[in-house]
Amino acid sequence: MRFLHTADWHIGKKLHGYDLLEEQADAFQQILTIAKEEQVDAIVVAGDLYDRSVPSVEAIEVFNRMIVEMNLQEKFPVLAISGNHDSSTRLETGGPWFVQSNFHLNTRLDQAFQPVEMGNTQFFLLPYFEPISARLFFDNEEIRTIEQAMKEVVTAMKKQFKPDMSHVLVSHFFVAGSEKSDSETKLMVGGLDTVPLSLLESFDYVALGHLHGKNALQAENARYSGSPLKFSLSEMNQKKGVWIVDTQIDETTFEFKEIVPLRDVMQIEGSFKELTMPRFYESINRENYLHIQLTDRAVIPNMMNQLRQIYPRVIGVERLFGREEQQKNNQTKKEIKTIAPTELVDQFFSEVTGEELTGQQQVWVKEKLADIHQAERGK
């Protein structure tokens, strides 16, 4: 069987205040063209269909047009799940009759254990979930992390495996060893969102969503499709696109197909005088989203308004003067952000008391952080 793997559409997302609906519609048309050219049997969307749990009316209209064209007009079966940005409750509306047109949209953990069978392949559609959902579903109070939950999930799924079929997991989480970019929501709370790659070995292919770069994970049987668009400056050099996956009983192969952005994310550098000279700005695509690095030391009155007269989509201006100190401060902030909250608590406790947390205190910290994370998700 051949299918297309995409994810992280984030319909309705804005880039530094700029609306991306036009770019998202264009990227979708390219995805649809690839699906037709490659003659895929189905399209997999691994979560984060929307950018917000309560999307705008405009975002909903764009998404609905996409689904109608892809599923009803072009007749592609669609296998999709909700991601951490989606509202599973809202997405679930209409699910029972979506299936009648081969649009399979899973938003609850219990749905993941009923595989969708197409051709020679079983698809297990596992939406984003919190540990408490697994704790309740499996009636196991010992489940406190996603890793613990996934051990139970995979075990239950394997009981549904048919030996004469390929097995594909579609899910939305952070696999240990993957690399994040700035546009992905930071969900680290004591390692709650981390899944070891070793837990996924039973599947012939794992179609992942959540991280926006296709190279975030290099595994023999697992890939992130990445987002169809660049959502931050840190993704500036990433190639965006989709995976075309072929499943056979004895082998699974996949090939990346690139998407060309309607408007790219770029960085340019120069003095204010250089940037405002026609011979400079006429050599670049000024319709792109631009991050500007200024080499000037002096204050420039009305600088941003003048730049936007030439470059209509400026997403940021950075002064390179004094950059070394700024980089040092940014690096310190970055290092703090990469430390798990449990480790930060350990460090703080040690600095204040001069002692280390006991084993029981560490357990209490992890449980409290998990409760805080769950409360924040429920807001």
Automatic annotation (TrEMBL):
Domain of life: Bacteria
Start and end residues of each Calcineurin-like phosphoesterase domain: 1-212
One Pfam family of this chain: Metallophos
GO BP terms, alphabetized: DNA recombination; DNA replication
SUPFAM superfamilies: Metallo-dependent phosphatases
Keywords: DNA recombination, DNA replication, Endonuclease, Exonuclease, Hydrolase, Nuclease
Keyword Hydrolase among UniProt keywords: yes
Oligomer and partners: Heterodimer of SbcC and SbcD.
Name this polypeptide is given: Nuclease SbcCD subunit D
Native species: Enterococcus caccae ATCC BAA-1240
